What we know:
The protein is built from 3 helices and 26 strands.
Amino acid sequence: MDSPPMPPRPAPAFRVQRIDFAGIDAVELREVRSGSRAVFALRGATLLAWEVVDGGDTVALTDGYRDAAELDSQNGVRNGVLAPFTNRVADGRYRFDGRDHDLLPGIPAAERIVYHGFVRDMALRVIDTRESDTGAEVLFSGAIDPEDHAGYPFALALTVRVRFGATGIGLVVTATNVGEQAAPYATGWHPYFRLGDAAIDTLELTVPATRRIVTDARLLPLPGEAAYAPVGEGPQGDFRVARVLGREVIDACYAAPIPDGDGLVRSRLRDPASGRQLLVWQRGGLIHVFTGDTLARDPRRALAIEPVETMTDAFNRAECAAALRLAPGQSRSFAFGAEFVPATPAGPLSSNPCAADAA
């Protein structure tokens, strides 16, 4: 007697699909039932949109590039993955293992500004996707070749693993030195966060860091120990206790962060009017905060809370040399992400699988 046919397996609650996002080749991770989603461009694994459904409202949590023209412009480095360096390299020059390197050969002194690395503008490949009832994943892959970028004669293989859950996203950036010489390397993320339509001036910010990086007029850290100061001294403020941003203009890096019991550092953005929150988490590193006052479109619409492995101009600082050094065959990963907390949380904050898996 023939066995009855097996019933069809139900579709998973989370879905991954390739989409066209205003002319950008992208991947959408979506929770089918609620409609919450995150969209990442193949170019640089750049987060284009992150939306959750809360209380019947679709709440935008980031302000990303709206179309291909904006992505091409790279203005503000909206939600970009930063590698093999974060923020500025002073005058585009650095010295590594006894050799001088120039990231901007032939560029006059007045125009020698370079920042945030190459990956944000690189074409990546999707090499794996996963769908389940608890979340979705995408694995992006790319490479930096010694011939690709002036002043960076090093070979790196790179992956960006993205995890998406009902209330959170998590990223793990991994670099492997596939060359024959050691390479300087650091990574980070440049997301612009928002809580729906709430103005950032009305939001509360918490940054659990005890020190700040002191910079000059070019936003480069001061030499030596002068670059480090307690957060309570000088401008840019102390955010260890939550306070409203108001009209404060911030473009600052915070160091010596204090992790929670699970080893993750969590900065917090909260809307007092709605009670909604974002917990921006990272495993180690520093935290850069930028109020977006110089953006070409919609300045001060969103707040950049940036997990970074190293400070600005780390390539030119002796105390950063060991942290930057990636030996041949060595791999290093940096994990970070964010979790949305609705006005009436459905469960404990630790229930977010993105942070647990990425960490």
